[in-house]
Protein 1
Amino acid sequence: MNTTIPYGALPMNDSFKTPLVVAGRILLALMFILAGFSKLGNLQGTAGYIASGGLPFASVLAVVVGLLELLGGLAIAVGFQARWAALALGLFTLAASVLFHKFWAVPAEQAMVQQLLFMKNMSVAGGLFIVAALGAGPASVDARRSPRLATT
């Protein structure tokens, strides 16, 4: 167990770290897996929503976004190419937030909900960027394939 504790940090038993990383990955990924299934199961509705945001090629984007969310979410959940999947989903989440949760440009009665969704997405993107930076941890496909990737 690591006995060096940085100033202001609380010690954590090392045996908690891996299960917490796995739980964190699954919780981050779950939102995307479910959204991906939903989008792919209703491509017409997804394309309509994308078109309502003024984006071109809405039908193509619906498939691409659905696959990105589903496959990227699964990759993060199992820790396969997790850094790349997390980076892609993090950038996607930032873009989707700016395009579809414009709390600064909606009527006052919608602003609070849109700001809440925007800030939730910023937090999710932050978590994804942490996975992109630190990797999936020791309980992952990435770590089994290359132990040097087991950074947590």
Note: The mean pLDDT is 92.
Protein 2
Amino acid sequence: MTLVRKNTAPYLPSVFEELLNTDWLGGRTNTFTNATPSVNIIEKDDAFELHVAAPGLKKEDFNINLDNDLLTISSEIKKEEEVKETAKFTRREFNYASFKRSFNLPESVNTAKITASYTDGVLAVSLPKREEAQVQPSRLIEIQ
């Protein structure tokens, strides 16, 4: 499985961040956050397990696509609220969130048997290994 490491250090010192994120019209701050969920990849003897931390979503919110050996997990959520026609907006902020993560699968993954489940805010994708790629138990070879 190909892993891409990212630098999690802050890009700007907090003084500049406060200056740039201040909402000069009042209200809350305009913070643009990258809502890409964290992923844990676990390798076992018979499979890889991919855990995506995405609390607050439903299993219907996810799209899992496999194109050749590229596994893509994505989600797009738009919250639309009914607004009375008599309402006048001074300010209205839409609620929209999306993410997309892609992973190059190794040849050892049996793509026909990939499964996924979503419980307690964690999307778990099981990527079973092919029989020939699994760790074989040690055995004694007889000398003839």
Note: Confidence is low (pLDDT under 50) at residues 28-33.
